[in-house]
Design goal:
Helix content is about 40%, strand content about 25%. By secondary structure, it is α/β, with parallel strands linked by helices. The protein has a single domain, classed as Maf protein. It is globular and about 55 Å long. It starts with a strand and ends with a helix.
Length: about 200
């Protein structure tokens, strides 16, 4: 495997996944204004999957244009509820609203990754996991949120499947790393075969 890769994300979880799988990385956040990009793509009626892919590519390309000859990994995760894009909450009221929307329904968690070099995408991959949420009363949802720290709430959307969030679901099918934001197996396969 080659030198350090650049992770174009300030997500602690994504960095932890790379570390766990012995992928040497440095963090350089892209600071892409995701809301502006999402709004414009939603106006164009882009699907949640396309939005996720575009954001991952945008982040990777932006950072890799400055990091000459280095490979840069960009990533983005969104929730797709019957074609509706659900983004990370801005506050606890929004978090509760999102949980109420997902309550007793199935949805997809989509994670896209993009590897770029010198400002251009050289590889990308998108994975999906299906989650079916149990049925909860509003009080139970509020109780769940009270156990989640602000940092966790705003970093991982409204649930952390590696923690308290697992109890929200009746069924989870898909790769847990995808749900946490990084389909690491495919990334490892790509890096193993990558030639400078």
């Amino acid at each position: 495997m080659q030198n350090k890769i650049v992770l174009a994300s300030k997500s602690k979880v994504r960095k932890e996944i790379l570390d766990k799988y012995n992928i040497d990385s440095i963090v350089v956040p892209s600071n892409v204004d995701e809301d502006v990009v999402k709004s414009s793509l939603i106006k164009e009626q882009a699907s949640p999957e396309i939005i996720s892919k575009n954001l991952a590519e945008l982040k990777a390309n932006k950072v890799s244009a400055k990091k000459i000859d280095q490979i840069v990994l960009g990533a983005d995760s969104v929730i797709d509820l019957d074609g509706e894009l659900i983004s990370k909450p801005e506050n606890r009221e929004e978090a509760l609203m999102i949980l109420k929307k997902l309550n007793n329904k199935s949805h997809f968690l989509i994670s896209s990754v993009c590897i770029s070099k010198n400002g251009n995408m050289i590889w990308n991959y998108t994975d999906k996991a299906k989650l079916i949420m149990k049925n909860f009363s509003e009080d139970e949802l509020k109780q769940y949120l009270s156990k989640i720290s602000d940092e966790a709430l705003y970093a991982y959307n409204v649930y952390q499947i590696e923690g308290e969030g697992r109890n929200l679901f009746a069924n989870i099918s898909g790769d847990e790393n995808t749900i946490m934001g990084l389909p690491i197996k495919k990334i490892k396969d790509y890096l193993k075969n990558y030639k400078n």
